[in-house]
Amino acid sequence: MSAVISEEGGVVKAELEGRLDTMNVNNMEMQFTAGIAPKAMPTIVDLTKVTFIASLGIRMLLTTCRTLDRRGAKMALYGATPPVMEVIETTALSEIIPVVGSEAEAVAAVKG
Amino acid sequence: MPPAGNERGNELVLHLPCTMDSLERARLSLHDWLGDRMPSEGALNRIEVVLEEMISNVVRHSIGATALTLAVESGPQSLRITLADDGPAFDPLSASAPKPYSSLDEAQPGGLGIGLIRKLSQGAAYERIENRNVFTVSMATA
């Protein structure tokens, strides 16, 4: 599992790769949150290469998004594969965080 | 080292320590056992999520559990997954379902795991048998 965090055009981009399962989230949640939340900038999260997500992964995305929201910044997810999308929809995360198909749509969602 | 256990035709039985490592060991053992009975991609993902949540729930929250027994039984277009642990009595189904999300600010991050088990399975049941928690879930394979 890896998380690459970069900045471009006033937007933070987090590219996640691998399985967002219990063990991996335990190992990388701190890095993910610390790399995003203090910036308090519009943030997009690339899920294209995430092959699996369980409840701790959903919790990590939710808590990071909520922290950003309280600091006045938006976060959007994009590129979820069908198995990952099913879990996102089952937990209703997509009701409160924008989940879109492409990077361009995600940028538009957080800058709008 | 492979987990202690055995495979008896339509049933997989694994004896695992109550540790985080057991999550991945159970998943890989399940994959090996499924072999050519592999469910559809969507069903397999739902089975993996539910298995992860069942084991994670005990490993992360039980105070006192040391050993797990995982049994997976194959039926017609379904799998019956049973997880037993030797921790204090706890019915994971006793918790009320988390409130539906209405806003980001009010969203509670807890209770997601049991919610996923309830929604992705065909049914779930808890029993306390001989000082062990026994949690059984039925999963569709199609």
UniProtKB/TrEMBL annotation, chain A:
InterPro entries: Anti-sigma_ant (IPR003658), STAS_dom (IPR002645), STAS_dom_sf (IPR036513). One of its GO terms (molecular function) is anti-sigma factor antagonist activity. Residues 1-110 form the STAS domain. It comes from the Bacteria. Gene3D superfamilies: STAS domain. SUPFAM superfamilies: SpoIIaa-like. Belongs to the anti-sigma-factor antagonist family. This is Anti-sigma factor antagonist.
Automatic annotation (TrEMBL), chain B:
InterPro entries: Anti-sigma-factor_SerPK, HATPase_C_sf, HATPase_dom. The keyword Kinase applies. Residues 18-136 form the Histidine kinase/HSP90-like ATPase domain. It holds the Pfam family HATPase_c_2. The keyword Transferase applies. Keywords: Kinase, Serine/threonine-protein kinase, Transferase. One of its GO terms (molecular function) is protein serine/threonine kinase activity. Gene3D superfamilies: Histidine kinase-like ATPase, C-terminal domain. It comes from the Bacteria. PANTHER family: ANTI-SIGMA-F FACTOR RSBW-RELATED. This is Anti-sigma regulatory factor (Ser/Thr protein kinase). It comes from Novosphingobium marinum.
